[in-house]
Amino acid sequence: MRAQAVFDEKGIEIKETVEARKEKIEGDDAWAILSGAREIVVGRGKKFQVLDPATDDRDEILRLCLGRTGNLRAPTLKIGDRVVVGFNEAMYEQYVQG
Predict the structure, then answer these.
(1) Which 3 state secondary structure label does DSSP give 12?
(2) Is 80 exceeded by the pLDDT of residue 60?
């Protein structure tokens, strides 16, 4: 199941969409989004992890959240004071509420 299907299933309304191929969010701009969160949840493959930008290493957070091109990975969701990066079905079940 992909992210859009989860949003549709849970009745989640997307308030703003940024086309990552056209509008790059890299380096300090990505950190500005990530560092403002209470927690960052990053999904990769079948695993996900929860990070705290106040205490976890900035470079490690960026390594996990930026793709090979240096751009913030998609999808990235800002939900209240939480940022969810990447897609993992179990992560979405736990952290993305409708």
Answers:
(1) coil
(2) yes
- Strand 76-79 to 82-85 pairing: antiparallel
Task: Enter the DSSP assignment of 89.
Answer: H
Q: Which two tokens stand for residue 39?
A: 């927690």
The CA distance from 24 to 72, in Å, is 8
The answer to whether 49 and 92 have CB atoms below 8 angstroms apart is no
Specify the DSSP class assigned to residue 23: S
Structural contact between residues 93 and 43, judged by C-beta atoms closer than 8 angstroms: no
Dmax of the chain from CA atoms? 35
Average pLDDT, the chain: 88
